[in-house]
Design goal:
The chain has 266 residues and is an all-alpha fold. It folds into 2 domains: 72 residues; 149 residues, Up-down Bundle (Ferritin). Helix content is 71%, strand content 0%. The chain is built from 9 helices and no strands.
């Protein structure tokens, strides 16, 4: 049997990396289990391919915008000032490309779109036809198209934010970029009367608590449990690390000092 002094000089191997990592591995398993509970089910995936009534409205709005803005661009090239001619040409070309994408998505989603402008849009075209070439036409063109783009821009933004359909979301993004570009070009003519534009409608209603995360009561409880588990596991790991360091210091201090003695010279 070894004496106490011999036991004090013995060195014990520290726990291996695998042993030290076991608490962390347990925590990771718990985190993965909780995240699996929070993951959306197959119902959410199915929603990405459905076509809602609002998706159909988006296709209709973009299609009808092109049906009257392409003829407007052609008239601008005939009756407008040089700057308005350039703006009209750019808008006509953009809507030509956008119209091709609109009809292709309409066919893919089996969502019919109109093939004629609305009565109100026909009235806007008639107003441009009756305007005298030059500054008079420039004012009608810039203000009518700027007001119409502002209305479509707001609708596209709302539908882009709420659609469940991946194709419609991508289409709305492209459409919104085109409308924003057109508004900027129309404003660059210096003809836009901003006082005639409608006041922006901004909701002042506060969002309900928890709405940004979209979590129900059960999910919030699971998230709270996740925080408790992760926090408790981290505390346990830190205690293990601190304990290992303390034991290492004790072993170091218990080692007998080695005294080196040299031979005497006579």
């Amino acid at each position: 049997m070894r004496s106490a002094s011999e036991l004090a000089t013995l060195e014990f191997d520290p726990p291996s990396a695998l042993v030290r990592a076991r608490p962390l591995v347990r925590i990771l398993f718990v985190v993965l289990a909780v995240l699996t509970l929070l993951a959306p089910g197959t119902a959410s995936t199915a929603q990405t391919t459905a076509v809602s009534d609002t998706d159909a409205v988006l296709l209709t709005k973009v299609r009808q915008a092109g049906l009257w803005e392409m003829p407007s661009g052609m008239m601008a090239m005939e009756k407008g000032s040089p700057q308005v001619k350039a703006v009209g040409f750019a808008i006509m070309m953009d809507h030509g490309r956008l119209d091709v994408a609109t009809r292709a998505l309409s066919a893919k989603l089996n969502s019919p779109v109109p093939d004629q402008p609305s009565d109100e849009q026909r009235g806007w075209l008639l107003e441009q036809m009756n305007a005298a070439p030059g500054p008079a036409f420039d004012r009608v063109f810039a203000n009518r198209l700027r007001a119409a783009h502002g209305q479509v821009f707001a609708v596209l933004a709302q539908l882009r934010a709420g659609t469940r359909n991946d194709d419609v979301r991508a289409f709305a993004t492209v459409g919104n970029q085109a409308v924003m570009r057109h508004m900027t070009m129309l404003e660059s003519t210096g003809m836009v009367d901003y006082t005639a534009l409608p006041e922006p409608a901004v909701s002042t209603t506060a969002a309900p608590a928890g709405a940004p995360l979209g979590l129900d009561t059960s999910q919030i409880a699971v998230v709270a449990a996740l925080f408790l588990l992760v926090g408790g596991g981290l505390f346990y790991v830190l205690r293990q690390i601190k304990g290992n360091r303390s034991r290492g210091r004790v072993r170091t201090s218990s080692r007998p000092a080695t005294v080196r003695t040299g031979g005497s010279h006579g």
